[in-house]
């Protein structure tokens, strides 16, 4: 499955969203005659379940992708939508008219959960778009899950059991308070900045995924603005806001799904071709005084007695323990002088020819290298490291 969102469709869908919003306000009195507020609790539940399901799908897909790519962006994406999905779930269960959930359902409690979810959503999507992606050395999925769960539990405890002590965000029949509007305008501002960033990234990359995210941000921006004008949590404006939020989440799913799918496809291509090559291809990131292996493929590891799955995250000095520090010295020299290096190392009765070059990825010094077994072949002796230095 592939997205078919184009610039033309993006403009059309964005225009439709604005026209739809204007039409609802212009013909609100006529629509209200058909709109029955008594049905709203059920419709609210359906719309929120759709959004929560999307949050869960993004979380699970990001966790799966992170397991293969160690992408910081995927980890932050999983963290974001775990929190947003959890807070939206409690918002839905706490909505006025729903059954007893720890305490009586109420407008105040549900609105605080709504606001907190929108603030987290806006800020973390902004960070995901702004921060450069990089490969993490360790698996942070469990620490992320524990931290996110703890954060949700703390927020839930405060909103559920100290509801009476919190400022009012909505006064039924009168509308939203200045504090509530302040939260929504802040969220709108962050989403507007995120929209500008996304459109600029689309201009540079021409990525359909970025176009889908930009469209999602337009719908979510309109959602936040709608939630500053409703008079009751059961009125037509509130319903419209939830409808726009659901559409926005749909396009978030499309956008981030294709980003992670593209990364996974590239990873699958590498896993299909490179392991068949003789020798070894690797990437190592400089971490303090060591070089940590973040990628390694090739059939040489089997001959050297290594379990390839356990190599990632290991210092090069541990992967090639008999190199006596020579490999690390050459890597440092390569980065310091920003020059390619070729040298031989004797390892386990084999002669390995290393070829390495410096590279910068996400502001980190990286070594890209290949290794070929030249045991038994004639090779001109390379100059000693001390002589080079």
TrEMBL record:
Keywords annotated in UniProt: Membrane, Transmembrane, Transmembrane helix
Domain of life: Bacteria
InterPro entries assigned to the protein according to its UniProt record, in alphabetical order: MASE3
Transmembrane segments: 10-28, 40-63, 75-93, 113-132, 144-162, 182-204, 211-230
Gene3D superfamilies: PAS domain (3.30.450.20)
Start and end residues of each Membrane-associated sensor domain: 36-257
Name recorded for this polypeptide: Membrane-associated sensor domain-containing protein
């Amino acid at each position: 499955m592939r997205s078919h969102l184009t610039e033309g469709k993006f403009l059309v869908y964005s225009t439709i969203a604005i026209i739809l919003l204007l039409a609802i306000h212009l013909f609100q009195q006529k629509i209200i005659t058909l709109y029955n507020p008594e049905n709203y609790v059920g419709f609210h539940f359906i719309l929120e379940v759709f959004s929560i399901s999307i949050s869960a799908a993004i979380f699970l897909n990001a966790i799966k992708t992170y397991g293969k790519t160690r992408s910081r962006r995927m980890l932050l994406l999983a963290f974001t939508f775990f929190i947003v999905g959890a807070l939206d779930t409690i918002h839905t269960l706490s909505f006025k008219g729903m059954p007893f959930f720890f305490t009586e359902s109420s407008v105040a409690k549900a609105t605080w959960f709504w606001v907190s979810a929108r603030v987290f959503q806006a800020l973390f999507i902004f960070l995901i778009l702004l921060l450069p992606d990089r490969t993490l050395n360790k698996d942070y999925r469990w620490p992320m899950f524990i931290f996110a769960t703890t954060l949700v539990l703390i927020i839930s405890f405060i909103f559920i059991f100290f509801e009476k002590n919190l400022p009012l965000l909505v006064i039924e029949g009168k509308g939203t308070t200045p504090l509530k509007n302040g939260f929504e305008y802040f969220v709108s501002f962050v989403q507007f900045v995120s929209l500008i960033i996304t459109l600029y990234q689309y201009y540079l990359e021409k990525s359909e995924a970025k176009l889908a995210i930009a469209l999602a941000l337009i719908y979510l921006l309109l959602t936040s603005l709608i939630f500053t004008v409703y008079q009751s949590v059961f009125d037509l404006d509130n319903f419209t806001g939830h409808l726009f939020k659901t559409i926005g989440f749909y396009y978030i799913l499309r956008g981030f799904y294709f980003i992670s799918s593209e990364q996974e496809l590239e990873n699958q291509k590498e896993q299909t071709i490179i392991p068949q090559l003789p020798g070894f291809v690797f990437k190592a990131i400089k971490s303090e005084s060591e070089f940590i292996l973040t990628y390694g493929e090739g059939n040489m590891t089997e001959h050297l007695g290594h379990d390839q799955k356990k190599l990632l995250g290991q210092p090069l000095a541990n992967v090639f323990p008999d190199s006596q520090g020579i490999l690390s010295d050459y890597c440092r020299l390569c980065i310091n002088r920003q020059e390619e290096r070729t040298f031989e190392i004797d390892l386990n009765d084999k002669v390995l020819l290393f070829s390495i070059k410096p590279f910068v990825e996400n502001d980190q010094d990286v070594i890209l290298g290949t290794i070929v077994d030249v045991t038994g072949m004639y090779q001109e002796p390379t100059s000693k490291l001390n002589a080079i230095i």
